[in-house]
Design brief:
13 helices, about 0% strand
Length: about 350
């Protein structure tokens, strides 16, 4: 969410007046955002197709998907208007902060849940309890609260190429994003390392996991979830290098800035890729039915809802609605007929 300074809508002064560089950054951000948006819709289709909301691990992926979906929408936002800090620019800045915090909160909760499954051998919260309600509230409430804090100081406004916290609100930028985000990333890295170590240790000692099927199931969930924070750690490298470069030098590197501009929506592409790989793995392990079987069931359901019932069924329903059929006498007659045949 690094700002790109000294860039306006009408002109580009960032690269010595080379307008094509500014336009290419905007075009690349919107192009990658469009791809991320389409892939988010595809992922949502498979979530609904397989009803992937029954376990807490699957629900966490939905929260992560929602944060990624918001990030893909951010890629379509226009640059700040020429008239300065408009209400639309303030909303755009708040929405960008909400999308980022939805993403990072879901990532942190997934990492924490994976850590609990691996190290503590139990879920973070139990499904169907008050703890799960608190968990869901935190998944949405924490990002909404943190992202809305800059409203207190009216800090949202133009931030270079897009709207976020204004360039002159340095304190709000560090308090609302930079400091907490790096603290969370440090915690995620530590938990991530411990989780990988525990999984590798258990892999070398298969007797314990084979003896306890529930433990084996928990480790299976942990291995599926551990790849999602890995995407975040990989994608964050370019923004980190860019921020360090901006701190030590006033020179703007076009290639570095271009890569940073597409990192946000590219996170969504990475998450959808991991989702697709894990979904394929679960199908191969018979945890989920094959795609062809699921699609046939979906098509059969659609046909049942779209095609009219047979004429005999329609006549019977019509007779019942008109009161012309007494099912008690009809059943009795059928039983009597069977008795006479006997």
């Amino acid at each position: 969410m690094e700002d790109i300074r000294n860039m306006t809508v009408g002109e580009c002064v960032l690269f010595g007046g080379e307008r094509w560089k500014c336009d290419s950054i905007v075009a690349a951000r919107k192009t990658v955002g469009s791809i991320a948006f389409i892939l988010s819709i595809v992922a949502f289709f498979f979530i609904c197709l397989y009803r992937l909301w029954r376990s807490l691990a699957d629900r966490q992926i939905i929260y992560l998907w929602f944060g990624g979906f918001l990030l893909s929408i951010v890629g379509f936002f226009d640059a700040p208007p020429d008239n300065g800090n408009s209400s639309s620019c303030q909303f755009s800045g708040w929405f960008l902060g909400l999308a980022d915090w939805m993403w990072i909160t879901a990532m942190f909760l997934i990492t924490l849940h994976t850590f609990m499954l691996t190290v503590r051998r139990r879920a973070l919260v139990e499904i169907g309890t008050a703890g799960e309600l608190f968990y869901h509230g935190a998944s949405f409430g924490i990002p909404l609260f943190i992202a809305s804090l800059p409203w207190i100081g009216s800090a949202f406004g133009p931030a270079g190429m897009w709207c976020w916290i204004s360039e002159d609100e340095i304190g709000w930028r560090f308090a609302d994003w930079y400091v907490p985000i790096w603290l969370l990333l440090i915690v995620i890295v530590v938990l991530y390392i411990i989780t990988i170590y525990k999984i590798n240790k258990k892999r070398s000692d298969p007797g314990e996991s084979e003896a306890n099927q529930s433990v084996k199931r928990l480790y299976g969930q942990a291995k599926r979830l551990m790849f999602y924070p890995g995407v975040q750690l990989i994608v964050i490298i370019i923004p980190t290098i860019h921020r360090i470069h901006n701190a030590v030098s006033s020179e703007r590197v076009y290639g570095l800035m271009l890569l940073h501009a597409i990192c946000g929506p590219f996170q969504v592409i990475g998450i959808v890729a991991v989702f697709g790989i894990t979904l394929y793995y679960r199908i191969k392990q018979n945890e989920l039915p094959a795609l062809s079987t699921t699609m046939k069931k979906l098509w059969a359901t659609i046909r049942c809802q779209s095609e009219p019932p047979p004429v005999e069924v329609q006549n019977r329903v019509q007779n019942v609605e008109n009161g012309n059929v007494n099912y008690g006498n009809e059943i009795a007659a059928k039983e009597d007929g069977l008795g006479n045949q006997a």
